[in-house]
Specification:
13 strands, 44% helix, globular
């Protein structure tokens, strides 16, 4: 089989990790290529990984000159399936489908109704166009059972939806800095404190304010805790202002964008996620890769990995008291903290590896191709 993946190329976070790691592993089983429409770190990292990746640059989002070039590439290289990721690729595929007959599938990495919620113009225009484009696809891959239900509830045919969980490479040798080296690189003064961290965009959906409110409660219980926040975003100034007004700024460090993600997780004692909505976030798997226990909101497909009280804790969105109570429990019991991290690692390695991710995709591609032949 020959599979062509389409993605904007401006992607960061989980979507970037998912596509790059998936395509790398898929290359062991099928002929696969990525085309992106922006030149950014996605393309650079893909090239460094040795992937078959190409840019068809759009001058603007509405530049549809790429359609003709895509059509030529697909016909010349005889791709069987076009696999899209994200709103831009979905829209391009919808137009492409008018000119070329190929089976098209898209992965739903997030709740598409919330993707642009922090920008009024984009929420009105891009969300509408993405909803329109999604209706044109032949098949859908979702990254959690909760997203499968979401798609069915929104009128998409269950027979066209496949669930494949995210995965990470547990065999890859990690090049990580020591805790002390990492903290020194980010000018964090470290005197042996416990470290709680979150790697999530500073936007309203990630709800970092709930972590800060919990941090205030934790620091009233014990002062020897640092809270590291690894990301940038529109909420940055508001969040910093909260730490200053509540006198917790000495214990809360905003690191900005952190490229060395595994070094970040290596520096932590506890990994946290406070999102209002998620699919199946990579930050939990990446933390699990380094045996870090997770305390997370019970959203999306997270409960498919996190067993409350066994390999982490779950709490309801916005409940800073529950979060602070669970943080204090783990901070005060180092052995439980270590045991939960070990348990999370074992379950993630067994059920959420990149090898399983790629093999599940190959099986889906085969089903889709056979189904198409029988039409």
């Amino acid at each position: 089989m020959k599979i062509l993946h389409l993605i904007s190329g401006g992607d960061t976070g989980g979507a970037k990790t998912h596509v790059l790691s998936l395509v790398k592993e898929l290359g062991k089983h099928v002929d696969v290529k990525i085309i992106c429409f922006l030149e950014d770190s996605f393309y650079t990292e893909g090239k460094e990984m040795g992937l078959n990746i190409q840019i068809l640059a759009q001058k603007k989002r509405w530049d549809m000159s790429v359609i003709k070039k895509l059509k030529e590439i697909i016909k010349e290289d005889n791709y069987d399936i076009i696999h899209c990721h994200g709103a831009r690729a979905n829209f391009i595929a919808m137009i492409l489908k008018l000119y070329i007959k190929r089976t098209m599938v898209t992965t739903i990495h997030s709740d598409y109704m919330l993707d642009f919620k922090d920008n009024v113009y984009k929420r009105i225009i891009y969300t509408f166009l993405n909803k329109l484009a999604l209706k044109s696809f032949d098949n859908y891959i979702v990254v959690s059972s909760s997203f499968n239900k979401m798609m069915c509830d929104r009128g998409f045919a269950a027979s066209k939806i496949y669930t494949v969980y995210n995965g990470v490479d547990f065999n890859q040798k990690l090049d990580v800095s020591t805790k002390e080296e990492f903290l020194a690189n980010y000018a964090v003064e470290y005197k042996g404190e416990k470290i709680v961290g979150i790697a999530a965009r500073l936007d309203t959906n990630k709800d970092i304010i709930t972590l800060l409110r919990a941090a205030k409660r934790v620091l009233a219980h014990r002062k020897d805790v640092l809270f590291l926040i690894a990301a940038e975003g529109t909420e940055r100034e508001r969040l910093i202002d909260y730490t200053t007004k509540n006198n917790i700024d000495k214990n809360v460090k905003f690191l900005g964008f952190v490229n060395e993600k595994y070094s970040f997780f290596n520096a932590l004692d506890i990994n946290v996620l406070t999102s209002k909505s998620e699919s199946f976030p990579y930050v939990i798997l990446e933390g699990a890769r380094l045996k870090k226990p997770i305390i997370s909101t019970n959203v999306g497909g997270i409960e498919d990995l996190v067993e409350d009280g066994e390999n982490g804790y779950l709490f309801e969105v916005g409940d800073e008291k529950a979060l602070s109570d669970k943080l204090i429990t783990l901070l005060d019991d180092e052995q439980s903290c270590l045991k939960m991290g070990e348990n999370l690692y074992n379950k993630a390695k067994e059920c959420f590896s990149v090898n399983k991710l790629s093999l599940d995709h190959c099986e889906i591609y085969s089903k889709i191709k056979n189904k198409t032949k029988n039409i």
